User: Fold this.
Amino acid sequence: MHKREAHQSDPIKRQPDRGYVGDDLSPMAPPEAYAPPAKDLVSPEQMHPFLRRFIDEHTLFRKELNIFEEAILSIQNTGFTKELDHRLKHFFQFFDHDFIVHSRREEVVLFPLLDVRLRAAGEHGRGAEVTTPVDLMEDDHVKSMQLAAVVLNFLGLAFRLPDERSRLIVLDAALEQGKNLVELLRLHMFREDNVLFSLAHRLISNTEFEEMDSKGHEHLYKLRR
Assistant:
């Protein structure tokens, strides 16, 4: 799916894993989602610090996802409590303050040059419209924000409904979409850590990474102001 089409997608429906376009297989959507091709993979220790910082942030994000997922499962098993409500609110604060900022930094600083290099290296789909792994990652960013908005809206609606049965149905829908969000973000970060950043390491020079690093700090400062 092209990134321009992501805004038109239905975040309620699960999206099947596929290549960049059509049925083409790609390093970003292998037959087994968590089993990327072994060739050309680069360990984080070999990467420029600019890329390693994204990977380090992913490690922290996974911890937040685990806490969020545990809260969802606890609510489904034992019901809502103030403590679980606090955990949900904490996750969405983290999502707004950290994940979205992280994603914007990727989109503004890393992805533009990487997309150019991927196209030049032939690392793209073969359909009528040429797309690269960058398109897939940007699409994930959009989908994750859509799903987060769906979960928040459903949660807000559930506690405004006077009818208990309706309230439970909407709450269950919110929690299921929360699980989908966790699944999407985990796979997204896995693909970036194990495939996309290896491609970036191969196609972008250290000098260019240094320039990105400087630009990234400036952009982060603006986003956090």
Notes: Residues 1-25 have pLDDT under 50 and may be disordered.
